[in-house]
Known about the structure:
This protein has 289 residues and is α+β, with helices and mostly antiparallel strands. The protein contains ten helices and eight strands.
Amino acid sequence: MKYIDKLNKLISSVTGMEGPYGSLLIDTILLFVLVKLVERLFNFFFGKVVKKNKTRFSFRKKVSFVCNLFLVIMNIIIWEDFLLKFITLFSFVSAAIAYSLRDTIINFFAGIYIRLAKPFQIEDRIMISGHIGDVVNISNLSFEVLEVDADTFQSTGSIVHIPNSKVISEPLVNYVKVFKYVWNETEVKVSAVSDIRKVKGILYNIVNNNDIIKSIPSKMVNELNNNSNYRIYYNKLEPIVYTDITDKYVSMHIRYLVHPKKKRIVVNDINNQLLKLNNDGVIDLYMEK
């Protein structure tokens, strides 16, 4: 206590603060140091036990969030009486400050919403504000996604920083929250004189024997049965080929389930097989002139 009193007098002499303000400032500083020390100790010992980077990263984020939230709550409690007086005396100034910091405040509470409601988590593929990407970091005020091209579904290598408030103010698409798989369609155009039944049989053979696709329907059945939060029902989970007729060609649409991150691989494999069959004269792909 003797050293704290001396430190209190030193702060009073330097800052001009009198009364309990110096003690409150010391309490705030000590609380901050103590909480950060505990946070570092948790991360240190957890890092000694767990070697997997993904698990350690997730743990650090959770510990950081809990510690920062604890600091905010404790500082409000410590300064409660003086905060009330300050708000009473400087209500207009407080309103102006709150207005100027409204985005920061909204982002902070939106961050709490993200942690509790979990509209997405690290590694989820989402679309928000016109951006598609894989979530790589969630902080108190913003989150970052590794951008994905909308057409190819392949990573561009760019990191997009998005304020947490966007989760509240704009629609959010999560490609993997309920199920790991999404429906995709690959269009195949063949000449109007083709043997459609033969072509459709070839397309079914290609998609049903694809190493990535063929095991998904059974996995999807398990996910549907284990899901209790959403009422979602599908009549058919196996790949299906739909046929459309135009005045120039017949359009065949292969519809199948695929993991969002493997969509490009599957499309590439299907197209390569179709080109080979076309070159071998097995099918007659329609090519725009």
